[in-house]
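Subject: Predicted fold for Rhodanese-related sulfurtransferase, 118 residues

User T.R. writes:
Posting the sequence so we have a shared reference for the thread.
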Amino acid sequence: MNHSADVPTVSVDDLPSGEEYVLLDVREQDEWAAGHAPSAVHIPLGDLPSRAAELTELADDRPVYVVCRTGGRSARATAWLNAAGVVDAVNVAGGMKSWVTSGRPLVGENDGVAAEVL
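User M.O. replies:
I've generated the C-alpha cells; pasting them so everyone works from the same file.
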C-alpha cells in the first residue's frame, strides 16, 4: 500500500525561516557525520520508535520537518510519526540533496573533510 499521498510534504524552499521549527534527520550515522544541517536533530530511522519521546519534548507543539538523503526514508518516518500521534511531522521533499542545491548550510563531523551529502 502506498500512503505517500497522505504524507504532508514541503520543499526545502518552503521551510520556515529562522529556528521556529525542528529539523529531524533520519539518516544513518555515517551519512550524518559526512554532512548535515547545522540545526538538525539526528535520530536514525530505525531508532525512531524507541526515541520518539525525545522528539515530543523537542517539538514543544511545533511542527517537525523530517529529512533524509532524497525523501524516501523521511516520508516513512513522517507517516509513522503522524500515525502514532508523536508530533506533527512534515516530510522535506528531495531531502538533503535539495537542501544543498538550495544553498543551505551544511556541517560535517569529519575533521579536515569538507561536509557533503552521501
